[in-house]
Amino acid sequence: MRDEIVERLATVALALDTKDWPLLGSLFVEDATGYGKRGREAIVAQTRAHLDGVGATQHLLGNHRVTVDDTTARSLTYARVHHVGIGPMEGKFFECMGEYDDRWRRTANGWQLTHRAFDMQIMLGDFAVLRG
Fold this sequence. Notes:
Layout: H1 2-18, H2 21-26, E1 28-34, E2 37-38, H3 40-51, E3 57-69, E4 72-84, E5 93-107, E6 110-125
Parallel strand pairs: 1-6
Antiparallel strand pairs: 1-2, 3-4, 4-5, 5-6
């Protein structure tokens, strides 16, 4: 089960880096919470507000700590995320490092996120890159 969640985390990173919003949405339960939002659509919209205005991104994940309790789980995952500026932010970047704190539920569609938080511990570059 731990490996299934680690694979789901990789799929979340893929969805973010390819800006595959339907895929990202499918990884959350309908009433999920995260980033100060409630509901799958609101979480995806919040994510798009940041990432639709940037160029390439890369979400590198590691140091996975996963605890599974039957049909629920929690994962704590280190992340290093690089964002490339475009348009008026071309030539700039924003990079952050921190830890994702994710809650999961096993559903008919596999493990889905019920809550996502990111504790940003290190920031480099220009945060305005995310506002494209």
